[in-house]
Design a protein that fits this description.
single chain, 162 residues, mainly alpha, two-stranded antiparallel sheet, coiled coil
Amino acid sequence: MMYNINETGDPVAWPSIEEAKDMWSKLMDMPEAVQKKWMQDSKTLLQQQIAKLQKKLDNLKAENYKREITNIISELSVGLCKNLDDLSPEMVKGVKLEVAKHREAIRNRIVELRAQGASSSVVVAPQEEIVAPHAFQFDLNEPAAVDDDPPIVREEVDLPCN
């Protein structure tokens, strides 16, 4: 309700009573879940938006971390980066874990192809020890110490290999 100071001083309702009734009826026609959303206070709405955005941010951080690990492995494999000395312990652990996952996938594929080899014309070479490229400063044939904790995602990640 507003008062018009310059004119008669009679109160003026905004929106008009008819508009308010129309808005109320539209709200009541909506499903209950939508009604609750529209009836929440701004603090609750902001808290929900912050929670959604925080979840999205966390997902993007995890995706970025995976890309960084992949990038480091690529740089190591082509020799752009000679060692892991400049990386944080978390990044070294992530690189080792990812390499171990790739090795396991390769071994599983070899076993699968060998199993099919008897009934197929595909010839699979015998499994040889994987030799680490000169760029790696750790033994790829050694099983990586893997724990179930997700990798720690830091706010700022410096990539010294670039």
